[in-house]
Design brief:
Elements: H1 3-14, H2 19-34, H3 36-39, H4 50-58, H5 70-87, H6 96-108, H7 111-130, H8 137-221, H9 223-248, H10 273-284, E1 287-293, H11 301-322, E2 326-333, E3 337-344, H12 356-367, E4 371-376, E5 382-389, H13 391-398
Parallel strand pairs: 1-2
Antiparallel strand pairs: 2-3, 3-5, 4-5
Length: 399
């Protein structure tokens, strides 16, 4: 913590809530300074009178209201100070009240009021001292420099207050922007988790439904195949639960109750596509095939997950809606992007997939800086085509 911040914190902490307390203390201090000529009368040969003391008190007492009515207080002190100087019983040694009101006007009043008050005091001091005898030249400089210094300090306080207000306003704007960014990030994260859970559950449930529907048919004719079918249903369910645990694991740091501390595996990516295609073909009887071309390029972690989920969702739609017998997954690597195409020989868009699945595919591709298209394939059936940028290309697109 710097000395400046420490002083500012201490000043704020000890500043009274009622401004009259501080102003009353300042007025009392000014009155004490004005009264020093009566407290130590032997220090000078000027005549003393109670009328002179009242005029001196008139330069200090109005300071109690200096912040509530700065212009009125400045006018009152501006009248009492030359009156005391002309009355000369005694004349003011130092214009304490004048310096205080010039500081206050410079810090709080409007520009024309500040300039008018400063000019009036300078002219008033010069004119008043011309009517007094035995005034040395240095006394002119002393009084004028005191007034100018008080005015300059007031302007400095005004600038400092404006600067502080600007910083506070900027801090409030940054806080609002940070809150908006946090809310937006939370919304994006909720949408991402919703997409992941939809893809996982839709894929797993679709495979389980297909197997469950086939179970009663094969249980009578081929018991061994029925056992394999139910094993596939159980395996699919366990895999879905494992993937859900990976997603939900980011929502809390502690392990679930009963967890033995086994590590949470990372989200699946492009390297898991062969297993995904094999699993879909094995579980549903769909002739699913994966073809890869080009040299693999590095992908960011979210693009890896997006590529896997896109293929998963497209195959899920094929199983659920297309009534297809064959599905082809093509993975084509280029210098700046990777293309994913899932084509089936099903019913096509007239009765084909739709709803949240295709929306989720487009959202995933857009979130990674890519694009997605879905529609009727040239040879019939349905095709989902997604283009995702590689790591370096994505940084350029999002930068």
């Amino acid at each position: 913590m710097t000395l400046r911040s420490t002083v500012a914190e201490a000043t704020t902490r000890w500043r009274p809530t009622n401004p009259y307390v501080l102003d009353a203390a300042l007025a009392a201090l000014t009155l004490f300074a004005v009264s020093l000529q009566w407290i130590f009368p032997d220090e000078g040969d000027d005549p003393l009178s109670w009328q002179g003391w009242l005029l001196g008190a008139a330069t200090a007492f109005p300071l109690i209201w200096r912040r509530r009515a700065p212009s009125t207080v400045a006018c009152a002190v501006s009248v009492a100070t030359p009156a005391q100087a002309l009355y000369h019983a005694p004349p003011p040694d130092v214009m304490y009240g004048g310096m205080v009101v010039l500081y206050t006007v410079a810090a709080q009043a409007r520009p024309w009021q500040r300039r008018l008050m400063l000019a009036g005091w300078i002219i008033g001091v010069v004119v008043t001292m011309q009517h007094q005898t035995h005034q040395a030249p240095f006394e002119y400089a002393f009084h004028l420099m005191g007034l100018v210094a008080a005015y300059a300090l007031g302007m400095l306080a005004r600038v400092q207050r404006a600067y502080t207000a600007a910083l506070e306003d900027r801090a409030r704007r940054l806080e609002r922007e940070r809150a908006a960014d946090t809310a937006r990030a939370r919304a994006e994260e909720r949408a991402r988790i919703a997409r992941d859970m939809h893809d996982i559950l839709a894929h797993a449930v679709s495979l389980m439904v297909v197997q469950a529907e086939a179970g009663p048919v094969v249980v009578r004719k081929d018991p061994d195949r029925a056992v394999a079918t139910f094993d596939t249903i159980a395996s699919t369910g366990r895999d879905a639960m494992a993937q859900l645990r990976r997603i939900l694991g980011v929502l809390k740091e502690e392990l679930p109750e009963g967890d033995t501390g086994s590590p949470r595996l990372p989200q699946p990516g492009v390297t898991a596509l062969p297993e995904l295609v094999r699993q879909v073909g094995h579980s549903t009887g769909l002739r699913a095939e994966l073809r890869t071309s080009g040299e693999p390029r590095p992908l960011s972690s979210d693009t890896e997950v997006a590529a896997y989920r896109v293929v998963q969702e497209a195959l899920t739609n094929t199983v659920k809606h297309a009534r297809a017998s064959r599905a082809l997954v093509e993975l084509d690597w280029a210098d700046d992007h990777v293309s994913l195409t899932v084509t089936d020989d099903g019913r096509g868009p007239s009765g084909g997939p739709g709803g949240h699945g295709l929306i989720g595919i487009r959202e995933r591709a857009a979130a990674c800086g890519g694009s997605a298209e879905a529609g009727e394939a040239p040879d019939g059936g349905f095709r989902v085509a997604v283009r995702l940028p590689v790591a370096a290309q994505r940084e350029t697109a999002l930068g």
